[in-house]
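Anyone? Bumping this.
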Amino acid sequence: MKLINYVLAISLMGLSQVTLASMKVTVNGMVCSFCAQGIEKSLLKLDETKAVMVDLKNKVVIVEAKEGKTLNEKLIKEEITDSGYDVVSIETIPQTVAQFKEQMKGKK
Amino acid sequence: MKQALFLNFLFFVMMGFVTQLSAAPLGYKNSWMVMGDFNKTYQELSANYSITANDALGVSVNAMQTEDSVSRQQIAEAVYTRKVARWNLPNAQANIWFIGGLGTTTGNTFGGSKAMASPGVQVDYETTRFYSMASARVYAAQGATSNITLVRLGASFYEVDYDQPQPWLVVEARRITFVSNQYVFTPMLRVIHNRYFVEAGASLSGQLRFNFMYNY
């Protein structure tokens, strides 16, 4: 039983490390996809980025890291500012871009 | 021959790649923007490259003619576009833009080619459901000065996700003094989807209109 608990605990720790791979950025000024595409393009060019999702309705951008890579909060903020927008806040979230999309679909 | 080479060069530069028809006359940093604006009395094709998040350099060719096609004028210019100010709000965006061109103009109402300067300003405010814009630009050449002023208001039919096309109804009032001192009112259907932006409509007098923007 102790062994099972130990394995479970280790697995959960591993899982949390893998899934703590995205950043949720709240951005002011995003009003249309034509204007906001610069955010997506510039963040996708970063070496550590696996996927990007722009959510116009909730004014957030989700950036998912490649496996084994770490997202650079400062760089993400710079890229979004260079695209002409203002970053309000950045937080780490446990979801991937695909999981966040599913979560948003569930809220509709 | 030289003119043909110049036009080929302009076309080549533009194919690699905006005007005052949208909220943003320049794209994101290190991107190209191509724009077109076409109806019977005014045709414009322009392109620019955003060297920073606030500045773009480009070229533009346009042609104007009166309704009866008697008077015509063409302009070819290099254009600098500057985002003078932007306000990023939680649910809206507002901008002030400067657009300035330097080039030459030809036409059948005067002889030869004249140097031309075309300073202009654009202000806009938009949300995900509402759009407003006003712009004024002077096309100044000795003995051949005209100006274009316009106001646009628009509303989107519904909000969309980032990766879905969004339809808008936009109404424009535009005056091109070379053509007429009257404002022409044109309702248009606009569709925005990531890289592209197209508008099509007809003025209240039935003149067809087509605009596009492409950013990459």
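Late reply, but here is one note on the structure posted above: The mean pLDDT of chain B is 89.
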